[in-house]
Design a protein that fits this description.
The protein is α+β, with helices and mostly antiparallel strands. It contains 24 helices and 21 strands. The radius of gyration is 26 Å and the shape is globular.
Length: 690
């Protein structure tokens, strides 16, 4: 018989709907049951694409005897962390305060009023690797709650006080946000950089896109070593198994330091965050490998992660047929069965498929073998591919054939809920790709973004009432800071791509709503709006798998201020940067997005206004020249066409010069003389002229 989760929309919760566990979803009913029964809460947090969540379900939650222990002694609550990032942040912090490392599945034990007192992540059915068996944990917690209730309450009180201190602790660190922080942060990150394989640290290796984006900004300011590391990291990731060599798109992370064997789940946010980095790398350096990664990744998102209504799905599972990575792995025999002997030998040589394999059971994950090939740069190549043009043609045909063959396999499951925050990131990614690639690609990606934005505004933000999640025609859960901030940023990026004022107008409305709902009077922004009583009200400028919502909002505030002149936007941004300045100085690694915001504030956004008559083809060349710097804000003002009500001050006095499309380059309210030549040094960004 299904349990209560059968009535939920979340694919993760529905995965557990037929467990013998008497699961509740988080809400008034479950919390009231815990208080009425005076039982501890067993809180389990995960997500649909989480491999170890599936393992714990098979081993424990589907086991009748384990389920009886849970049902007889606990109120069991299952939470999708993608639906409730506020709960996940609170209880992940609680586990870290208990000495754990965090992660998913998260297994926390709470008092009947929701205060944490013990927990862990994955617990095996039999004790191993220093981890106790899950049944032992259940028995021990039950005995402690019954026999040592005061000690449990004392522990819960202490943890709750610590959580509340964390939520307000940054105010103690308010400091001046100074340029030296950027130099120190770059040095900190480069000390952690892997200059052999790219990225940061050792195994497991995550892409850390916000840190790469910050370093790319430092490269824009003239740091050659920062640029070198970003290019190395992007090249190595694209050559490894972490990048899907056949279907495009990135897996979650690499289990080794070489980006070879991934953890196979694919997340919308990872791909959305990496695309702008590759797009900027291509745009600023002419790296054609980066261009192909943008095409491959956006192609994957359009093909496999776009809903019929236009929004973007959340995740793809790591497993197929209950085996992690099975969908993506190959053997020499399976390659030759598709390609024949001659082309099969070429594929195996180039993509590292061997009889012994590099993955499980003698299979191989496709990766580009050393030396790592990079396609020539535009205008001539400093480096060339390690195969001949004739072989490249054969390989392109081979990839298409292998992809078609792989499509006949059983696909990993897909979590088809649509999250406002992650869709905002995807909007920004498609816009970055459109501006960087231009032409047919640019028109295609712009159309995808326009359709997605229209869908989200209609279904997830009707009348600016923002919801977090949409599935099966239903929008639910009040939007968090991330939902408001990421979607506002995506709308702003879409305005900077197609210049339709409705996107800017919507971005301003959402930003104003975020300021009203999430601003902490002591500084910074809360993650949720305070409408639900929680043990602590989370607030953070720290990046996790996704950027800090506060940092993304600060960048949007600064960019909006540059266009609208609204002083309140800059004041809110400055107050938040000062709040986190001390934390950024101590630990740059977790503040990549906030550091990007600090850089933007110190430098001042660079704005290019292109004034043109309707249907003036010359305007596109000026726009494209402005787009060569990915951070420049380009606004196209067409004569006799209504503009946004937020732009009169910016557009004042900027008219067409002698009938020709004209560009004005501005920073902090000061503009250059007008130019009409797309090759003008005034228009083209350089670190020296900035």
């Amino acid at each position: 018989m299904p349990n209560r989760l059968a009535a939920e929309l979340s694919p993760y919760l529905l995965q557990h709907a037929h467990n013998p566990v008497d699961w509740y979803a988080w809400g008034d009913e479950s919390l009231a049951a815990a208080r009425t029964l005076d039982r501890p809460i067993l809180l389990s947090i995960g997500y649909a694409a989480c491999h170890w969540c599936h393992v714990m379900e098979r081993e424990s939650f589907e086991d009748e005897s384990t389920a009886r222990l849970m049902n007889d002694n606990f109120v069991c609550i299952k939470v999708d962390r993608e639906e409730r990032p506020d709960l996940d942040q609170i209880y992940q912090q609680a586990l870290q305060l208990l000495g754990g490392h965090g992660g998913w599945p998260l297994t926390l034990f709470l008092t009947p009023d929701g205060r944490p007192f013990y927990g862990g992540t994955y617990f095996p059915p039999v004790g191993k690797y220093g981890m106790p068996a899950f049944k032992e944990v259940l028995t021990g917690v039950t005995e402690a709650f019954r026999a040592r209730r005061k000690a449990v309450d004392d522990q819960a009180a202490q943890l709750t006080e610590s959580l509340q201190q964390l939520s307000r602790g940054e105010t103690r660190f308010r400091a001046a946000a100074e340029a030296r922080l950027l130099d120190e942060a770059e040095a900190q990150l480069l000390r952690r950089a892997d200059f052999t394989h790219g990225g940061f640290g050792e195994r497991p290796k995550f892409p850390n896109p916000t840190n790469l984006a910050f370093l790319l900004g430092r490269a824009r300011a003239g740091s050659a070593v920062a640029l070198s590391h970003v290019e190395l990291s992007c090249t190595k990731m694209a050559a490894g198994g972490m990048y899907d060599q056949l279907g495009g798109g990135f897996h979650r992370y690499s289990t080794d330091e070489r980006w070879l064997i991934p953890h196979f789940e694919k997340m919308l946010y990872d791909n959305a965050l990496l695309v702008p980095i590759y797009a900027a790398l291509h745009r600023s350096t002419g790296n054609l490998l980066a261009r192909e990664v943008v095409r491959g990744t956006l192609g994957y998102l359009e093909r496999e992660m776009t809903s019929p209504e236009g929004g973007f799905f959340a995740t793809q599972d790591a497993d197929s047929e209950s085996v992690e990575g099975k969908f993506f792995a190959w053997t020499p025999e399976s390659i030759r069965a598709v390609m024949g002997d001659a082309d099969g030998e070429l594929v195996c040589r180039v993509y590292g498929v061997t009889p012994s394999g590099n993955f499980e059971h003698g299979t191989s994950v496709l990766h580009v073998t050393a030396p790592t090939p990079t396609l020539p740069r535009e205008g001539g190549g400093e480096r060339s591919a390690s195969w001949t043009p004739e072989e490249e043609t054969r390989l392109a045909l081979a990839r298409a054939k292998l992809f078609a063959a792989r499509e006949t396999r059983i696909h990993p499951a897909r979590d088809e809920k649509i999250l406002t925050a992650w869709n905002g990131l995807a909007l920004s990614a498609f816009c970055a790709g459109a501006r960087a690639l231009g032409g047919e690609d640019g028109a295609r990606w712009t159309a995808v973004a326009q359709r997605a934005a229209t869908f989200i505004l209609a279904k997830l933000a009707p009348n600016d009432q923002v919801f977090r999640v949409y599935k099966d025609g239903v929008a639910k859960l009040s939007g968090t800071l991330d939902d408001h901030a990421f979607f506002a940023a995506g709308l702003f990026d879409l305005f900077l791509t197609d210049f339709d004022p409705r996107w800017l107008n919507a971005a301003c409305r959402l930003t104003d709503r975020a300021l009203a709902r999430f601003t902490d009077p002591d500084g910074g922004f809360f993650l949720e709006d305070g409408s639900e009583p929680l043990v602590a009200r989370p607030r953070s400028g720290y990046d996790n798998a996704i950027p800090s919502g506060a940092a993304v909002l600060v960048r949007t505030l600064l960019r909006l201020h540059a266009l609208t002149g609204e002083a309140r936007y800059e004041r809110a941004a400055q107050a938040t940067l000062e709040l986190y300045a001390g934390a950024m100085a101590r630990s740059a690694f977790g503040f990549g997005e906030m550091l990007r915001a600090l850089s933007l504030w110190l430098e001042g956004p660079r704005v290019v206004v292109v004034a043109a008559a309707r249907d003036d083809a010359a305007a596109r060349a000026l726009v494209d020249a402005g787009w060569r710097d990915p951070e420049t804000l380009v606004v196209l003002a067409i004569q006799d066409r209504p503009s946004s009500p937020h732009l009169p001050a910016l557009l004042e006095g900027k008219s067409v010069l002698d009938g020709a499309a004209t560009a004005y380059v501005c920073r902090r309210g000061t503009c250059s003389p007008p130019v009409t030549d797309p090759a003008s040094p005034v228009l083209l960004f350089s670190a020296r002229s900035s």
